[in-house]
């Protein structure tokens, strides 16, 4: 494919404002009368609220409002309204440490903090449940009174006949795998400014990954018309899924603004961010894999318990997505999946890069190596015998179009030195690899999947692109601009991207699920095609040529065969100012639902585009301290067509680093009372520059998808197989198999000790 | 962060006077990498912050006539790390300084701050204790000198009285045929240590027999500590595998680690054994190699 702008590693269009400090985040905004809002949060993981006395706080100089549950709408909220279980401010019960109990608006930070200290809340402690097994015991303390049990939702999927298949297998391995709560660790914490104006319009400045759906959520919980809510996004400093569903600080700031008649800003402290900005769903996975002696995987059976935390959010969606990826990887003919969500007195889970897939892939791809070991087969060879192929419909219904799994796997294996190193590398060194499948284009989970974009040309030939793709740091604006520039034939620097305002942008489901490039990119492409058509017609008229002979490239327009090149601005100026015919374009992309689609039965047909990839790592283990040193990571992932080489590699590298954190370091740790004890970066470790090894990211181009120029999303895949690749490499290095992440130094020492004990 | 007064005295006397004022709760500020973090998050609420930025005579590295080194308290760790004098006379101190935080942190953080913050895990403490360093303390008028191993009294606690400042740290000259090193374990790069071990071993001429030894442990007690029983076991002994094993086991006995978020006590004991063995093994190899490498 000959391209001018797409497939080039061009610098990001937002680089200069970000590096120079010109970019405005919500904390940078200034507005007249702006107040400081702060939230009083529960110090208890589970307690009854007996009384709240706000009189002293209200009496403090500089305090403009103090609110409790009595001052806010009584509506219950959850991402899915049918699961609604959370009030804006707690009424009579708190369910995790950090639950919102009251809030204040004051002139400044110190006064707001002093006011929080003056609110007297009397609690009566209730039994605290932090563990899913305890939560599921018959007669366990109910976290939500009135419900039948703490087990709050479940799903079953069955394809083929797993029991029959298990009986036919020559080899079956079984194991339990555990993952824990993780924090997203966005550089920019959750925040908002709410301003409820005299016309009853509510404007919220925030950093939402899905401003349109959050606008609906704010209206829903406040019980006000959606038309009255507007969300304006500031520059965003990271999302990773944490900014997808509304945070309660939005309605809280809104109520404070309505009461005071002034804008109110609430910003998480870093400690609040760690303890209340929601987490990755921890899974406990009981997995069985069965294969024939020639290495064909016949069956996989998984029971997965997800720790929901204290309230509902994206739990069902996350577990459903897990089941889709579980069903699709290796096209296993017999699949049984049971997923369940259980309430505990911990912070609630939410979306997190990979959306349940890293947890499941840790189990499935670790177990492939265990199976290979049992069979006496090279794990790479076992994977070869089960790879997904292009243009195949999996037993679970997943329609795989483009698929470069084999290419990715062979490339990663070769680059890590699989043949030379596996089982025979230097002592205490090992290599491991893992495969994955992920969505490369969001999903149809809302019952529809579509996007729109608008393009207009100024009379000087510059282009305004209005898209709903949010740039949270991943580079979506640059990718959208490249797609538009390529199609229109203009220079990248001539494109200005607007995506920040729900009153401006078309309705959209948001930037998640590696969705923006595929969905919004297609809409942008359509809008550019539309505008290009008008542009070509105008040029043909001006240059007295056949439209079919008009060429546009790098903001120059000419007639085929002619050497006389015109600036694009001449053409637009001519048609606007001579004829009064401005040039614009509108584009819409509808990802049509497959025939017979219904949300409950669609399963893997929810995914419009699958993306495959492999990661291979080399590690060195210190058997005396348990320290794991990741020496190299090689990632080979399918991109369809790589829109921007540099940014795609950046996405892979960033997610590999996050995957190393998931594998070796990261976990929110609770004390017995349910308080998170590592609520700061001193003790919640994420990989930093000194921990990140040499990384090689390969963007493997492939054909067969409907993305713009054939592109697939690449935002999440790099995180998905990192942990099992590291677990497999640790096994190769020292012969111990860890079934729990993070694989800490202490766990490795313990496992080595057990191994030595069993050998003597 | 609560409102506070900020003063920038230009003499030691002035600085100590503000710190001595019984009416307030003053806090000295050097690089701010601990103080500011504690003020933001950990409930440190001084009424006055006393910046030492303009106080002369606190930021220096001096090659002493006796072969030792004196380091001013507000000398950035980055300067300690890269100092030619320190690298020549007590390279293990440069090595320990280089373990603290990131490049950016080391350009702000000072050696005095690392010591006065009195974290049991402070990276510069074990090696300075092992080298027999002294703390030079001033109240603005008079100075007193205490051994660094007696400087710490508990987590976050030192012998500094109200109105006193650490002015400098004095590292004595290294004895002939001595080997010093600092080793730490950590959860990630740029982490405070899970266990730190500082060693200074002096050997008899032409052998691996120990003449004098000081072993200091970090993050395994309320303060950085000297492992005196281990030192006693080693004194006069030929350093070999058996002795090293016995000494490492003794160090585990002496350490008093606790369970915390960074590690369990049991795991810290494993690390004390491994790290002690590794520093002693390095010392042994050095001595056997005729005091080289």
Walkthrough of the structure:
The complex is a heterodimer of chains A (760) and B (293). Chain A is α+β, with helices and mostly antiparallel strands and 760 residues long. Chain A folds into 3 domains: 15-22 and 450-590, Aldehyde oxidase/xanthine dehydrogenase, molybdopterin binding domain (Aldehyde Oxidoreductase, domain 4, 2-Layer Sandwich); 31-126 and 187-238 and 243-276, Aldehyde oxidase/xanthine dehydrogenase, a/b hammerhead (Aldehyde Oxidoreductase, domain 3), CATH 3.90.1170; 283-444 and 599-759, 2-Layer Sandwich (Aldehyde Oxidoreductase, domain 4), CATH 3.30.365.10. Helices cover 29% and strands 24% of the residues of chain A. Chain A has a 7-stranded mixed beta sheet with strand order 3-5-1-12-9-10-11, sandwiched between helices. A 5-stranded mixed beta sheet of chain A has the order 7-15-14-13-8, with helices on both faces. In chain A, strand 23 (556-559) and strand 24 (566-567) form a beta hairpin. Chain A is globular, with a radius of gyration of 27 Å. The termini of chain A are far apart. The model of chain A has no long low-confidence stretch (mean pLDDT 96). Chain B has 293 residues and is of the alpha+beta class. Chain B has 3 domains: 5-51, Uridine Diphospho-n-acetylenolpyruvylglucosamine Reductase, domain 2; 61-171, Uridine Diphospho-n-acetylenolpyruvylglucosamine Reductase, domain 3; 178-288, 2-Layer Sandwich (Enolase-like, domain 1), CATH 3.30.390.50. Chain B has 11 helices and 14 strands. Chain B has helices at residues 12-20, 35-41, 77-82, 84-89, 91-97, 103-108, 111-116, 124-130, 228-234, 241-254, 265-288; strands at residues 5-7, 26-29, 48-51, 61-63, 69-72, 134-138, 143-147, 152-154, 157-158, 165-171, 178-185, 195-203, 210-218, 225-226. A 5-stranded antiparallel beta sheet of chain B has the order 4-5-10-6-7. In chain B, strands 11-12-13-14 form a 4-stranded antiparallel beta sheet, with helices on both faces. A 3-stranded parallel beta sheet of chain B has the order 1-3-2, with helices on one face. In chain B, helix 2 links the parallel strand 2 (26-29) and strand 3. The longest helix of chain B has 24 residues, at 265-288. The radius of gyration of chain B is 19 Å and the shape is globular. The relative contact order of chain B is 0.12.
């Amino acid at each position: 494919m000959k391209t001018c702008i797409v497939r080039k590693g061009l610098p990001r269009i937002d680089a200069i404002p970000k590096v120079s400090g010109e970019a405005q985040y919500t904390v940078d905004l200034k507005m007249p009368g702006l107040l400081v809002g702060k939230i009083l949060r529960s110090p208890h993981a589970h307690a009854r609220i007996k009384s709240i006395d706000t009189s002293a706080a209200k009496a403090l100089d500089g305090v403009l409002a103090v609110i409790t549950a009595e001052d806010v709408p009584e509506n219950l909220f959850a991402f899915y309204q049918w699961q609604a279980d959370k009030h804006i401010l707690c009424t009579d019960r708190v369910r995790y440490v950090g639950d919102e109990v009251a809030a204040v608006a004051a002139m400044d930070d110190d006064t707001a903090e002093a006011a929080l200290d003056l609110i007297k809340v009397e609690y009566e402690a209730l039994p605290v449940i932090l563990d899913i097994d305890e939560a599921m015991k018959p007669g366990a303390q109910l976290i939500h009174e009135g419900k039948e049990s703490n087990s709050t939702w479940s799903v079953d999927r069955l394809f083929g006949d797993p029991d029959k298949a298990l009986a036919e297998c020559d080899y079956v391995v079984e194991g339990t795998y555990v993952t824990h709560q993780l924090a997203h660790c966005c550089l920019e914490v959750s925040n908002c400014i709410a301003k409820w104006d005299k016309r009853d319009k509510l404007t919220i400045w925030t950093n939402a990954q899905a401003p349109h759906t959050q606008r609906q959520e704010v209206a829903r919980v406040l019980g006000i018309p959606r038309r009255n809510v507007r969300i304006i996004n500031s520059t965003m400093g990271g999302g990773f899924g944490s900014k997808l569903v509304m945070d309660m600080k939005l309605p809280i700031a809104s109520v404070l603004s309505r009461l005071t008649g002034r804008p109110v800003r609430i910003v998480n402290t870093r400690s609040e961010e760690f303890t209340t900005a929601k987490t990755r769903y921890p899974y406990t996975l009981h997995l069985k894999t069965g294969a024939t002696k020639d290495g064909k995987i016949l069956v996989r059976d998984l029971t997965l318990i997800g720790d929901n935390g204290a309230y509902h959010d994206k739990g069902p969606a996350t577990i459903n997505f897990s089941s889709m990826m579980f069903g699709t990887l290796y096209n296993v003919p017999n699949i049984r999946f049971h997923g369940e969500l259980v309430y505990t007195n911990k912070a609630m889970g939410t979306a997190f890069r990979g959306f349940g897939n890293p947890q499941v892939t840790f189990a499935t791809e670790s177990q492939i190596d265990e199976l290979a070991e049992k069979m006496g087969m090279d794990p790479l060879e076992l994977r070869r015998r089960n790879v997904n192929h292009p243009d195949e419909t999996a037993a679970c219904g997943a329609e795989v179009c483009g698929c470069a799994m084999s290419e990715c796997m062979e490339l990663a294996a070769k680059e890590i030195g699989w043949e030379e190193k596996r089982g025979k590398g230097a002592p205490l060194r090992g290599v491991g690899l893992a495969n994955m499948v992920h969505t490369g284009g969001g999903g149809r989970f809302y019952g529809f999947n579509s996007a729109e974009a608008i393009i207009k040309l100024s009379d000087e030939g510059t282009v305004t692109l209005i898209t709903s793709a949010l740039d949270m740091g991943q580079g979506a604006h640059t990718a959208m601009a490249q797609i538009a520039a390529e199609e229109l034939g203009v220079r990248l620097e001539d494109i200005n991207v607007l995506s920040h305002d729900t009153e401006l942008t078309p309705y959209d489901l948001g930037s998640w699920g590696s969705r923006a490039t595929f969905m919004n990119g297609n809409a942008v492409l359509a809008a550019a095609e539309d505008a290009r058509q008008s542009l070509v017609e105008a040029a043909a008229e001006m240059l007295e040529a056949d439209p079919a002979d008009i060429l546009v490239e790098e903001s120059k327009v000419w007639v085929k065969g002619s050497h006389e090149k015109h600036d694009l601005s001449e053409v637009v100026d001519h048609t606007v100012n001579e004829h009064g015919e401005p040039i614009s374009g509108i584009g819409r992309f509808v990802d049509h639902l497959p025939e017979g689609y219904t949300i409950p039965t669609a399963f893997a047909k929810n995914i419009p585009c699958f993306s495959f990839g492999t990661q291979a790592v080399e590690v060195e283990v210190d058997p005396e301290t348990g320290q794991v040193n990741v020496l190299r990571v090689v990632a080979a992932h399918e991109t369809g067509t790589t829109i921007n080489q540099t940014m795609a590699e950046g996405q892979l590298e960033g997610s590999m680093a996050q995957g190393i954190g998931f594998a070796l370091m990261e976990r929110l740790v609770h004390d017995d009372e349910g308080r998170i004890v590592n609520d700061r970066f001193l003790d919640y470790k994420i990989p930093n520059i000194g921990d990140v090894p040499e990384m090689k990211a390969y963007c493997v181009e492939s054909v067969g998808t409907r993305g713009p120029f054939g592109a697939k999303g690449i935002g999440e895949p790099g995180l998905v197989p990192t942990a099992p690749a590291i677990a497999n490499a640790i096994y190769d290095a020292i012969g111990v198999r860890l079934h729990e992440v993070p694989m800490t130094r202490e766990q490795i020492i313990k496992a080595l000790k057990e191994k030595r004990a069993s050998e003597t | 962060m609560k409102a506070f007064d900020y003063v920038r005295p230009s003499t030691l006397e002035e600085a100590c006077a503000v710190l001595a004022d019984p009416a307030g709760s003053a806090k000295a500020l050097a690089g701010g990498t601990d103080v500011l973090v504690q003020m933001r998050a950990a409930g440190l609420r001084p009424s006055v912050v006393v910046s030492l930025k303009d106080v002369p005579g606190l930021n220096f590295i001096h090659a002493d006539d006796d072969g030792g080194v004196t380091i001013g308290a507000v000398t950035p760790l980055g300067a300690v790390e890269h100092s030619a004098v320190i690298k020549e006379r007590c390279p293990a101190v440069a090595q320990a300084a280089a373990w603290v935080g990131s490049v950016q942190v080391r350009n702000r953080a000072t050696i005095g701050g690392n010591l006065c913050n009195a974290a049991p895990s402070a990276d510069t403490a074990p090696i300075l204790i092992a080298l027999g360093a002294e703390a030079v303390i001033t109240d603005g008028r008079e100075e007193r000198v205490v051994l660094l191993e007696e400087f710490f009294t508990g987590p976050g606690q030192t012998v500094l009285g109200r109105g006193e400042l650490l002015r400098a740290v004095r590292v004595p000259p290294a004895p002939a045929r001595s080997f010093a090193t600092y080793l730490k374990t950590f959860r990630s790069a740029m982490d405070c240590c899970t266990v730190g071990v500082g060693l200074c071993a002096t050997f008899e001429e032409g052998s691996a027999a120990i003449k004098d030894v000081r072993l200091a442990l970090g993050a395994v007690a309320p303060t950085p500590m000297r492992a005196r029983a281990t030192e006693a076991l080693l004194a006069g002994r030929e350093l070999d595998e058996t002795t090293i094993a016995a000494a490492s086991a003794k160090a585990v006995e002496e350490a008093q680690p606790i369970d915390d978020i960074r590690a369990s006590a049991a795991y810290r004991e494993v690390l004390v054994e491994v790290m002690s063995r590794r520093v002693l093994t390095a010392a042994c190899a050095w001595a056997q190699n005729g005091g080289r490498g």
